[in-house]
Fold each of these.
Amino acid sequence: MMARPVLIRRGLVVDGSGAPGAVADVMVEGDRIAAVGALPDVPDATVIDARGKVVCPGFVDVHVHSEVEILRGCHTAGVQMGVTTELICPDGMSFAPLSFARLAEYRRYLRGIYGDDLGDWTGGSLASYLARFAGRMYSNVVAQVPHGAIRLAVKGWEPGPAGEDELAAMGSLVRECLEAGAVGLSTGLEYAPAAHADARELVALARQVAQGGGVVSAHLRAYGDGAAAALQELIGVARETGAALHISHFSFDPRAYALAEAARDIDITWDAYPYCDGCTMLAYALPPPALHTGIDQLLADLRRPDVRQRVRASLEARFPPGSRAWFAALSRPHNRWLEGMTLEGASARAGKSLTDLVCDLLLDEELAPLLILPWPGSPAEQELRLRQTLTHPRQMVASDGIFQGRRAHPRAWGTYPRILGRHVREARWLSLEDAVRRMSSFPASRFGLRDRGLVRPGLAADLVVFDPGTVADRATYEAPRQAPAGIEHVLVNGVPVVQGGRLTGARPGRVLRA
């Protein structure tokens, strides 16, 4: 049976291009936008009265750790924010293409970000992994080639450069993932095992992606003081291969931004979320060489005094005196008293050195703790940095959502309405039209999603209707799992998924392929 047409009446259509909005009707037939303009009544159409509201394209989240939530069939946070398409496999992380044994190891390593429940997935190709998403998606999914999983499949946790045969095997897996529809390569150069890759390996894999017009998305090898040097490495990769380059969660840094702006011979963009702090797993603080043979050996090593002495400098550099880094989530009930407490405060209360606290928790929790990492500087300095980030012309919006723990980062539930409420309506850092463009057509065009990101006849009917006067994030650090205000209707492939601010239960999302 054909779905009833949907007629959205008299909303301010902000079409995603950046052009000024105009009041118009939008007609949806099937999974496509049929018409935009002054339209007649349509018998049997579902009518949405959008007077006083904004009608815009669905948002495209280019960096979100949602795939386990999707496989569980419970991922609603994105679509409730107006996100209709999500790029998965960020930071080079995913659970394919991996054998059963490698999958078990990688799950343990990424437990702080993805949790324990992968449903019925036991390993295999990216194509078979993506097939598991059918019927479970509220919004669309786009895969990237996950560098971490690719290297783990071929070389394990072993550090050092890949040999010629290993590079050939990685290249073969990259091509297999691209054939399954991946839109580019994603790498996380601060996370093992991708952190062990050298520039030669990055060039070899990026060249495979560049041949198909894909994008190399990267979590830099370092942020903060090391960001400029880390970015220079990737600019070199882009120059040598011709690949387009996209930097993940790249907040304003004067030297690094200047370097990117000066690299006029390469195609470079980046994303960021509207918060003054990051979030990642505690194991991220260990130097990459600490994980060199596998999780069991890492845990055994962390019991040894000589190993603790070797990782001490790295931990103290990550968390210097006065660090405001604090625990967002712990898995063991007897450790949850630490949630909301800084590492410095926890160290003092436990009567342990920072190194012993971290190593003991990683052992007890089997790598599960999750951290919130506030930016350095005063609130005024943080606010200025955030403004410089969100208003840069090469920046697009992404949530970097992580869904584990009672006190997870609120960006997973609040990013897009926070932009529209706080930074468009209240602070006026961005115009409405520019903000919508950064959340829709800019990311869609960047990653080759040619029928998404605009309100135009013939394109996919991924649409959002929101109230510009009330749209706001409700998620907080104390209670992050709060749906936003003001996102009233969301259509995915022409099907209402949010109606009157409530989920309809429909799951019409698709795996979109390059």
Amino acid sequence: MALAPYTGPFGTAELRHLLRRTLFGCSVDDLNHFTGMPLQAVVAELLNFTNNTTPPIKAYSSAGPGGVYDPALIDVTVPFGSPWPTIVRQMGIPPNPIPKRNESLRNWWTGNLVNQERNLREKLTLFWYNHMPIQVNIVFTPELSYSYCQLLRDKCKGNVRELLKSLSTDGAMLLYLNGAYNMAGTPDENYGRELMELFTLGEGSGYTQEDVATAARIFTGWSVTELSGGQPALPAVVFTIGNHDQNDKQFSSFFDNAVVSGQSTEVGAYGEIGQFVDLIFSTPESSTFICRKLYRWFVGNGLSPEVEADVIAPLAQLFRDETDSQDQIAIVLQALLTSEHFFSADVRGCMVKSAADLTIGWMRELRMPTPTSDLFEAQYNVWNRVREIMDGAAQAIGEVPNVAGWPAYYQQPQYDLSWVDSSTTAARIEIKKRIMVFGFSTPEQLVLPDNRNLQFKVDFIQVVSQFDQPADPDMLVQQAADLLFGVPVSASVLQQLKVQYLLQGQLSNYYWSNDYTVYVNDPATTDPTAMLVPQKLKNLFLDMMGAAECQLY
């Protein structure tokens, strides 16, 4: 049975729902770009992307005498403002550049979210990161962590088997799940266990402990080195045949008692990995497991028996039908995001926003300015601040809590409610204050003078200038609610917001319309009530962004 396609109206409400789930926030610019396009075309465009990201750069420095920051005092082989992933680190010369490169990587990743293109690449990359994660500061090899990030971007909408095969010998994953220390005679089960339990099949799906032990033998022999000819080199994955278990590997009845023949070459050993990944995806449990994960990320956590039968089962069948396709995930997502179920009332406004959806979404929806690449030191400084406020709200980019990912996507029964628990609510309030009140500023001690003491704040006049008729307070408040709220609110609530913040207790719309028009025509006006227009807007948005409806999408 195929997943039922959506045949209802595809208007602004439906487009906004789709874009909120596939982008970080849904700005007026996003809506304007896609308005008038049919559903299939919108989803096709969202899935039409390449990995055209540029690498992270050295925007960091170290404090010298008198507290003066100097990029020449750290990571000296990398010129200030240049990419570092392909430059060998100098060893034995303090300070160690690894922490700075790790921070640069995480800030760069955050910048890719802030400046996302109008497509699914960054949200899909974050999906796979949550699903098959590393922790950058545990891997502690930034060049390999960068390669891991790019692997996810390269393959995020493609064939899942190919992604898993590549991931199994990825340097960052080898370090994170002990694969670099997995050798014949002393096999380490960590990666083989997580591959089945967390990445592809799920606990209790039917594989055995003996399957875990056997899988560990398949992955032996791969390690990481930072030497070449006895000299420092870029971190690289190496295979040592003497460390590989060359015996045959017998699996349980769950895998139809399959045998993977032991091999004695690097090509053969990689072929063993390929055979085992193929075995995993020959089981119906694997397709169901992956499709449930996609559902929880893009649709919601309500996996009722009806959803299992009417959505997950046909989606999993499509996943299996496209097992050899290089566009496997794109095809599956095209079906999910154009389905009747995806646009049903039950799954609109039903999810609590992650810290990334909240923070990046607000920044994009409010057109918050950030430094451009010509101010690269300021740019990375601001990205660092954005990353830190998301860290505080329990979504640290590059630093998931553990190999299971963020609890919102697996921890029963609260799931996404964990984003607003007692430990994160205060942090989410701080996110609102940072974006709405304080903005982002760059410090005095930056190296480049033109990058210092810059201010980046929301311009509320510019925000409402996107609306159809911002001089009409009824339309302004309605469109602000459409922009910010994940669910509709009553007319009485909108009326209260209008009177309290735009009319300041008056009853006639004239009091807003006149003041707004005066201010927009002359921002330097001395008219005492017109001068209050920016503050009125700020107060309105502050109130609205504190509402529970603003936490949903």
